[in-house]
Amino acid sequence: MSNLNQSSVDFVVRIWCDSSGLWSLRLDLNRQVKDSFDAQKIEIPFLTTTIVQQGS
């Protein structure tokens, strides 16, 4: 973990691969992390703002 923000947890991941497959590998890695978090019911809360308009 490189940073813990209000609405994200940042990781630094270094991989070695053929540069022609870099973007597809990056997308696949992100999807696998997301799917793993979902399977383990890991959620990262995010800041929300509620605006109430008076007189409505």
Domain count: the total is 1
Main β-sheet, spatial strand arrangement: 1-2
Instruction: Note the run of SSEs as H and E.
Output: EEH
* Low-confidence segments: none
| Number of strand segments | 2
C-alpha Rg, in Å? Answer: 17 Å
Characterize the biggest β-sheet. 2 strands, antiparallel
Q: Which percent bin holds the helix content?
A: 25-40%
Strand percent estimate? 5-15%
Label the structural class.
mainly alpha
Number of helices: 1
Please state the average pLDDT score.
89
Measured between the Cα atoms of the first and last residue, the distance is: 44 Å
Topology of helices and strands:
Layout: E1 3-4, E2 9-10, H1 22-39
Antiparallel strand pairs: 1-2
Structure explained in plain terms:
With 56 residues, the chain is mostly helical. It has one domain (1-56). Helix content is 32%, strand content 7%. It has 1 helix and 2 strands. The protein has a two-stranded antiparallel sheet with strand order 1-2. A hairpin with a 4-residue loop joins strand 1 (3-4) and strand 2 (9-10). The model has no long low-confidence stretch (mean pLDDT 89).
